[in-house]
Specification:
Blueprint lengths: L1 E6 L2 E12 L3 H9 L4 H20 L7 E8 L5 E10 L1 E3 L5 E3 L5 H19 L5 H11 L6 E3 L9 H11 L1
Antiparallel strand pairs: 1-2, 2-4, 2-7, 3-4, 5-6
Length: 169
């Protein structure tokens, strides 16, 4: 799907992708007990994607995204995870659009693990969380589950928009 964004330098056309970032069940209880951590969770999702695109392109990009926090899975159990519509590229330091068509899945899994666990270490003052963080590093050596929809978001994105809208309200 191509969208247009008016910038100071003119009209920008960009494509976007759908990303889902999840966490292991062992960490969910921490978020249930500390709902104020959900906002830093969303910031960690943005930082992760920014880090991935910067690493993939070798340059600092200004990316765009819309982050939708979903706190329950289809079964209704508490399962905080992020649905993100992200631009398939970003604006480089010289103000030009830099498309990114390929993101290595292995990198995404490891970067999401790093950003989430680092965020937990920073925001928690409970020493008990260290055990769960250490376990998460050991139990998931390939990183956490992160899904990147292949290709672009379906034309118009209406199906995805309807799906995500119920979680925004």
């Amino acid at each position: 799907q191509v969208h247009r964004l008016q910038t100071a330098k003119g009209l920008l056309h960009y494509r976007y992708r759908h990303v889902v970032l999840t966490m292991p069940e062992s960490l969910r209880l921490w978020f249930f007990r500390n709902p104020e951590w959900l906002s830093p969770l969303m910031r960690a999702g943005h930082a992760c994607l920014n880090d991935i695109l910067n690493r993939t392109t070798g340059m600092k990009l200004d990316i765009g995204n819309i982050i939708v926090l979903q706190t329950a899975g289809r079964s209704g159990h508490y399962n905080p995870h992020l649905h993100i519509l992200m631009t398939a590229g970003g604006i480089n330091p010289s103000g030009q659009w830099e498309p990114v068509s390929y993101i290595p899945y292995e990198l995404m899994h490891k970067k999401w693990q790093y950003h989430l666990l680092t965020m937990l270490r920073v925001i928690s003052d409970d020493p008990a969380i260290e055990k769960d963080i250490d376990q998460a590093w050991k139990k998931y050596p390939k990183g956490f589950v992160a899904f990147l929809q292949p290709g672009q978001v379906p034309p118009g994105g209406q199906g995805l928009a309807r799906y995500l809208a119920k979680y925004v309200v």
